[in-house]
Backbone:
């Protein structure tokens, strides 16, 4: 749009108003598209944080399920202690 406005202003002698309108609309379009890219990047960052949170919850639930499945064949107190320590360490790294 900006290029169309510049070309129109040089080619057509009496079309200065059209050139100004085309140039201004091009500037508005560029501002809106820049704003959309900014909002898109913020949305992607929030989506990444949400995904990481879901992954953390999944790991915790899976570890508790595995613990419950093998509870009778192992020393449950020591394994539970190690599991909780590992989950706390992995949570603090996030």
Residues:
């Amino acid at each position: 749009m900006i290029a169309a406005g510049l070309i129109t202003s040089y080619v057509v002698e009496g079309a200065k108003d059209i050139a100004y309108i085309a140039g201004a609309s091009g500037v508005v379009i560029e501002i809106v598209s820049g704003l959309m890219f900014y909002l898109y990047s913020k949305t992607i960052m929030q989506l990444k944080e949400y995904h990481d949170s879901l992954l953390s919850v999944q790991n915790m639930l899976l570890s508790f399920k595995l613990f419950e499945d093998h509870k009778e064949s192992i020393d449950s107190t020591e394994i539970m202690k190690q599991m909780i320590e590992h989950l706390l360490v992995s949570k603090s790294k996030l």
